[in-house]
Amino acid sequence: MKKSSQSPKTPIIDHVGIAVNSLEEGAQRWSAILDGPPTGVETVPSEGIRAAFFGEGSGRIELLAPLTPESPIAGFLERRGPGIHHICVRVADLEAALQRAEASGAEVIPPRTRTGAGGARIAFLHPGTLGGVLLEMREDPTAG
Length: 144
Prior knowledge:
Elements lengths: L11 E8 L3 H12 L5 E5 L4 E6 L5 E7 L5 H9 L2 E9 L2 H10 L10 E2 L5 E5 L9 E5 L5
Parallel strand pairs: 1-4, 5-8
Antiparallel strand pairs: 1-5, 2-3, 3-4, 6-7, 7-8
């Protein structure tokens, strides 16, 4: 691995996405474990999901439930069952981060960018190019 003269940045984990069959049942269980209700619930049509977030700021937990049987989360649940779906990191400049990722051999999942939860610009990197990990990048200009 090539060394850089710059010190490495510590990645900011925005959230960990967990696929669930039922948002209501998942939220009930996680609420009991975390001693409080979700801090937000929303529908994200671009991803075909309903999502419930636990916590604020970095390190949140996102529960993802499919809106339809055709949703990518429905396909994930059918193939793998409930569990960790993705890790999301914050990036200051989404396009610059995607260019770095592609230069390193990572593949961006189409569409290149989209609107995610909270109206943020997001993109996903294919798990086949990241050792089996689906990585979401969420643009946050304050992350730099």
